[in-house]
Specification:
Elements: H1 2-11, H2 15-26, H3 31-35, H4 42-54, E1 58-60, E2 69-71, H5 75-106
Antiparallel strand pairs: 1-2
């Protein structure tokens, strides 16, 4: 999994490839269509696509005379799960830090919920 993730993140490290992925998220495109907004050769665009293809992010199919490039959106699930795991861990650490800082400022009693406060024994009214 780590090697697969490394290839994906490395492929997306380049802004041109990220832009290609964003455009492919809208619709499939040919190499020529993908090359249009860039001031680079078709060969350079093909090299970028090869990196994305090796990372499993895109595939090329054959339809009559064209070879459209297709975004493999499901591979982003692996990246999303990896990122989400660490986002949750960071969020939990921030919540613990918030509680600690609040306790340092107000004292632990100020942050107990009403039903957590110790009950005092006394006479009933």
């Amino acid at each position: 999994m780590a090697d697969e993730l490394s290839r994906m993140f490395a492929a997306l490290a380049d802004p041109t490839r990220r832009d290609m992925v964003a455009r492919l998220a809208v619709s499939d495109a040919t190499v020529g269509q993908l090359a249009e907004p860039y001031d680079v050769s078709l060969q350079a665009v093909s090299k970028h696509l090869k990196v994305l293809e090796d990372a499993g992010l895109v595939t090329r199919t054959r339809e009559a005379q064209t070879r459209p490039v297709h975004l493999e959106a499901e591979v982003f699930d692996l990246m999303t799960k990896w990122i989400e795991r660490y986002r949750r861990q960071a969020e939990e650490r921030y919540q613990r830090l918030d509680v600690l800082l609040a306790e340092m400022n107000d004292g632990p009693a100020a942050h107990r919920r009403e039903d957590d406060k110790p009950r005092t024994k006394g006479k009933a009214s």
